[in-house]
Design goal:
about 220 residues, alpha+beta, Herpes Virus-1, two-stranded antiparallel ribbon, 8 strands, about 10% strand, PHF7 protein
Length: about 220
């Protein structure tokens, strides 16, 4: 039954076009009731879409994605608390703020990289708040790692990421299943190697050898 259901999802995705790149094979649909926008996982950043990497792994288009209710603190100097480069003067998809201190602004790609490196120690880089901050970042589509901080542990030689992180994994054997070739071959991000996807789950053809995750 699971295999048949997965095949049905794949057939349906092949008929849907991505609202970002307009190509067919969009397997992700906005979870907002009544919204029929579909998109490819690699197209999500360009379309300012959000995938929540917890629970039901829900995805949302740019119009229905969760947004922050807080505003940046008036004393904010419009620099990212992580890279120290300039950020937008308002909260947006690319510019986020700590919901607790409301004084720490950062680029989405900067806080995502911090989340992957910090692991279980992920917290606001300025006020160091953890739980409320982490909950909000999860809701806004930041993917967290359950591993110890990268600066406190050394990854064993030869160990590599081994699961599919697509918003909707279509593999009937699950996210941990990999094959040497074909639709369930696992491709790792060519930049950070910290995220992976089955070819089928991100609409990657057999001739596609390079893939980058949302973070990169």
């Amino acid at each position: 039954f699971l295999v048949a259901d997965t095949r049905r999802v794949i057939r349906e995705a092949a008929k849907k076009s991505c609202f970002v790149c307009y190509k067919m094979g969009a397997s992700i649909t906005c979870c907002e009731t009544g919204c029929d926008r579909t998109f490819h996982l690699p197209c999500a950043p360009d379309g300012e879409c959000v995938t929540q990497y917890f629970g039901a792994y829900r995805s949302f288009c740019w119009q229905h994605r969760p947004q922050q209710a807080v505003q940046a603190h008036p004393s904010q100097d419009n620099t990212c608390s992580i890279c120290l480069d300039t950020v937008e003067e308002r909260i947006s998809y690319k510019t986020m703020v700590c919901p607790v201190c409301q004084d720490a602004c950062f680029h989405r790609h900067c806080i995502q990289r911090l989340a992957l490196h910090a692991g279980i120690s992920f917290r606001c880089p300025r006020c160091l708040n953890q739980e409320p901050f982490m909950k909000e970042m999860l809701t806004l589509g930041i993917r967290l790692s359950k591993r110890p901080p990268s600066w406190e542990s050394v990854q064993p030689l030869g160990q590599r990421h081994g699961r599919c992180d697509a918003g909707m994994c279509l593999c009937p054997e699950g996210r941990e299943h990999t094959e040497k070739k074909g639709p369930w071959q696992l491709r790792l991000c060519s930049s950070c190697a910290a995220e992976g996807t089955h070819r089928q789950c991100s609409s990657l053809g057999n001739s596609t050898y390079s893939w980058e995750c949302n973070t990169c």
